[in-house]
Design goal:
single chain, 483 residues, two-stranded antiparallel ribbon, 64% helix, mainly alpha, 2 strands
Length: 483
Amino acid sequence: MNGPLIAKFLSFIMGIISLFMGGAALWGLALGDRVGGLAAAMTLGLAFAGLLYAAGRFQTDYRAAGIRDGLLVVSLSWVFASVIGALPFYISGMTPTFTDAFFEAMSGFTTTGASILTDIEAHPQSLLFWRSLTHWIGGMGIIVLSLAILPFIGVGGIHLLKAEVPGFGHEKMTPRLHQMALRLWGVYMGLTGVLALLYLGGGMSLFDALTHAFSSVATGGLSPKNASIGHFNSPFIEWVTTLFMFLSGVNFALHYRFLLGQPGVYRRDEEFRLYGAIVAVCSLVAGAVLLRGGYYPTLEEALRRGAFHVVSIITSTGYCTADYQLWPVFIHIMFVLLIFAGACTGSTCGGLKTLRVLILARMAGRGPASGLHPRGVFPVKVRGKAAGQDITSSVTSFFILYLAIFAAGALFMAALGLDFETAVTSAAAALGNTGPGFGSVGPASNYFHIPAAGKWALSILMLLGRLELYAVMLLFYPGTWRK
């Protein structure tokens, strides 16, 4: 482990986070808000970054970063970012305890969207702007942002990228990591800008347009309004949000290739086709159930509400325009399954991811044939190629580990005295980075009443879900630190 190099990497990342906080403070100054909490937090963040830089100031060989260094940098980046990001909430009195502030910040950076705020609109716009900005920073990834802004980190930075974007989402689009990170963030910023303009055209203020664009494209779901997107009571805004949540659930590498003039890239991608099919079928089913049950008077409204929440749940955004706990139990079960499924790899979403679901389904389908023909070879094909044993084993291990961590989280929440629905769905929603669940953490309530121990446990689940388990779990595996 290269301690000085880790400290130097972290110093750059903490400096970037602190400077983003300064942007929120400038927004507050323009509005006449009190920004003492933001200014103090930014100062502390920059001072911490300075101390880390001093510890690693003599380290200049960035190629020396290994996979263990990458794992530690990525995990600590998200923890430190959440600590620094929590300071404005705590110093300003927006949250009563640091536990609440840390929970809110971790929920923001990991794009979970779970909140402890009971009256969101009562707080200054500058703090709400920072709250939404944490979504946007964390959506594409803190390390990807750092690689885009600081090209020298890209020298040997492949281990950082693999640790933050594990699995199948990482597709090398350009020879240089810095260029790839810039292009990913370019697509990300483009989607955000277009959505903000559409929101403005739909009647939102500039503040509402920016904060909701940050949350929608990051698939985070934290809104500066108590009623979330439902506050605007606008079919146009709901359909536009549904579309951009869906687009943000797609592998961003596909968006990039589409912009390069490859219009058929979506149609050729198996993961996208399955993702689109799941969204289409579930939206139609939800709309039909709501219309038949008399929950909404017209087909358009039933379909709009159903599609909005299906996309919000599968992309782990967590926006709400209605209290879906009042809907039929059939929809509840479908939503819980969508929380686990998640959207595409290489997107801003949580959950298992569609590609893993596809591989697991094909592995399950291979079982009967293997039973009939024990000596037969039945390869699992993905994107036209046979998936190797390493891929199928990795997916199976991830699935088992995901369920085990979810079960442990649900049991821990239940041990704190929470009811069954709340314990199970709070753990699932935190691990899947979704936000609202059912029971007392449903869309009509929040996480304020959860005991402090539960908030820390859910914060850990959020981090595990955002970094897809292994980047954090490997830090506690003894073999990681053996030479």
